[in-house]
Amino acid sequence: MEPNQQRRFVGKVAFVSGAASGIGRAAAIAFAREGASVVLADISEPGTAETAQMIAQRGGRTVAVRCDVSSAEEVKTALDKTIEAFGRLDVAFNNAGVEPKKLAPTAEWEADEWDHILNIDLRGVFLCMKYEIPLILKQGGGAIVNTSSGAGVIGIKGSPAYTAAKHGLIGLTRAAALDYAAQNIRINVVCPGYIDTPMMARYTGGPPEGRARVISEEPVGRMGTPDEIADAVVWLCSDASRFVIGHAMVIDGGQTIQ
Ligand code: NAD
């Protein structure tokens, strides 16, 4: 353990969706570093195996479960496996998501493209909370963080489904936060700006101009790192944020306040 490193989650169990890559992987590593046993949920089994190996090298405990968050059955099975492996659930980071494959004006979107994004990015988070909350209640409380986006607080031209899903997540988080505040589950949502992950690499495309265009929109002159989101997620799940409920925390280097 590094000097002065806090271990705020010893004896706790964290469920992380989208744990095979990017922000989810960084958060899984951060929870493990703080002492949590971590459930790595994702559709990518090679990806979760790699995250598990990274955590094992640092002495942490994980279990990897294949889980498509848009399937109620797979989400329920993943949470059953959480209890089988570790016996409890204390915190959850509902982070799995997909970006649109193209940008196009709203009327040019097909309904099935809309459904694909909404099913994963919005319904998937609802399904995760539906099956997580009863388990967290059994522990007498805990915390949940969902992943929205800068697209949750501003409109993105050409991206109606992603913008709607990410705005919807803030509403979903606030409603659920009110439902469970008195029962000691705190539910919050993070809104990352441009974060340097595989998703961002797909979004900016191959040529360096794509990356430069994104960076030019950032007042700090750089993208964020997955660790910068993970730090906030761990804080929102820790006692340090015990009076923070239903909050949409924008972490974007100032991009959306311009
Ligand atoms: P990423 O593509 O690197 O990781 C996303 C992970 O989600 C992948 O491992 C993928 O396999 C998994 N996933 C996709 N569909 C799934 C499904 N149906 N069920 C389970 N897992 C699934 O992306 P990232 O940048 O780490 O994004 C994580 C979250 O952050 C997403 O919700 C994304 O919308 C959000 N976000 C990212 C950025 C950014 O700039 N990178 C900005 C704002 C919000």
Polypeptide structure, described:
Helix content is 45%, strand content 15%. The protein contains 8 helices and 7 strands. The model has no long low-confidence stretch (mean pLDDT 97). Strands 3-2-1-4-5-6-7 form a 7-stranded parallel β-sheet, sandwiched between helices. The protein has a single domain, classed as Rossmann fold. It starts with 12 loop residues before the first strand and ends in a 7-residue tail after the last strand. The chain is of the alpha/beta class. The structure holds nicotinamide-adenine-dinucleotide (NAD). The site of nicotinamide-adenine-dinucleotide has 30 residues, from helix 1 and helix 6.
Unreliable residue runs = none
What count of domains describes the coordinates? 1
Strands in their spatial order, largest beta sheet: 3-2-1-4-5-6-7
Please indicate the percent range of residues in DSSP E strands (runs of 2 or more).
15-25%
CATH homologous superfamily heading = NAD(P)-binding Rossmann-like Domain
Radius of gyration: 17 Å
Q: What is the third-level CATH name, the topology?
A: Rossmann fold
Please tell me the CATH architecture by its name.
3-Layer(aba) Sandwich
Largest sheet: 7 strands, parallel
Fraction of residues in helix:
40-55%
Extended strand count: 7
Query: What's the overall average pLDDT, rounded?
Result: 97
Catalogue the ligands. nicotinamide-adenine-dinucleotide
Distinct helical segment count: 8
What structural class results from the helix and strand content?
alpha/beta
